[in-house]
Amino acid sequence: MAKKSRKQQPGGTPATVALTAAGTAFTVHSYDHDPSSPSYGEEAAEALGVSADRVFKTLVTDVDGELVVAVVPVAGSLDLKALASAVGGKRAAMADPAAAERTTGYVRGGISPLGQRKRLRTVLDASAGSHATVCVSAGRRGLEVELSPTDLAALTEASLAPIGRT
Fold first, then answer.
1. What letter would DSSP give residue 38?
2. Cross-strand bridge partners of residue 123
3. What is the sign of the dihedral through the CA atoms of 78, 79, 80 and 83?
4. Coil, helix or strand for 73?
5. Hey, is 101 helix, strand or coil?
6. Is 114 exposed, middle or buried (0-12, 13-18, 19+ CB in 10 A)?
7. Residues 81-89: contacts with CB within 8 Å, 24+ apart?
8. Is the dihedral of CA 133, 22, 57, 84 positive or negative?
9. What confidence score (pLDDT) does residue 1 get?
10. Residue 75 to residue 67: CA distance in whole angstroms
11. 137: confidence class by pLDDT, cuts 50, 70, 90
12. Distance of alpha carbon 144 from alpha carbon 138, whole angstroms
């Protein structure tokens, strides 16, 4: 069962700290994470009772040697070619997991587009704009934050592009 809160919980994550510091309206959702779950994002959507096209996963990629964050719905997958094109690159691939964790300060399955140790160039799938709110990782497995896609794009300085595929 998901718990909701409008206030930052004690021991918040860098993502919730960044949202609070920015004065952004957000809701934290927590749920009991099952380590054996094959998809963290789909697990979050199901646990929160939210459509999988409103829950977005944060993927760290390597575009021509530069780490780039892609934020796409968990209901689909990332189109690497579209991502490379969106940032003016030629080739994109998934980043080395250790590099992604080291650079963002988060663990896989809990990487948030918000409050990263080093701000990376970010691309948000254009489908986010069709929702009043979206959910992204709050920086820990079993913890999601819900906010407007406009606020998410502004706080991450993201560009919007059609980078997801269903």
1. S
2. 70, 159
3. negative
4. strand
5. helix
6. buried
7. 82/161, 82/162, 82/163, 82/165, 83/123, 83/161, 83/163, 85/161, 86/123, 86/159, 86/161, 86/163, 87/63, 87/121, 87/123, 87/159, 89/63, 89/64
8. positive
9. 40
10. 23
11. very high
12. 5
What is the mean predicted confidence (pLDDT) over 81-105?
Answer: 97
pLDDT band at 160 (very low <50, low <70, confident <90, very high): very high
At residue 114 the predicted structure's pLDDT band, cuts being 50, 70 and 90, is very high
Residue 152 three-state SS: helix
Dist CA 39 CA 74 (whole Å): 9
The pLDDT, as a whole number, for residue 9 is: 42
The DSSP code for 165 is E
Residue of 101, 93, 99, 83 whose CA lies nearest to 141: 101
Q: Is residue 121 within 8 Å of residue 92, measured between CB atoms? A: no
Mean pLDDT of 17-25: 95
Stated as kind and residue range, the H or E segment containing 47 is helix 40-48
Give strand ranges (E) for the chain.
3-5, 27-30, 56-63, 66-73, 77-78, 92-94, 121-125, 134-140, 143-147, 159-161, 164-165
Query: Residue 11: its pLDDT value, please?
Result: 57
Whether the predicted pLDDT of 4 surpasses 50: no
DSSP secondary structure code for residue 8 in this structure: P
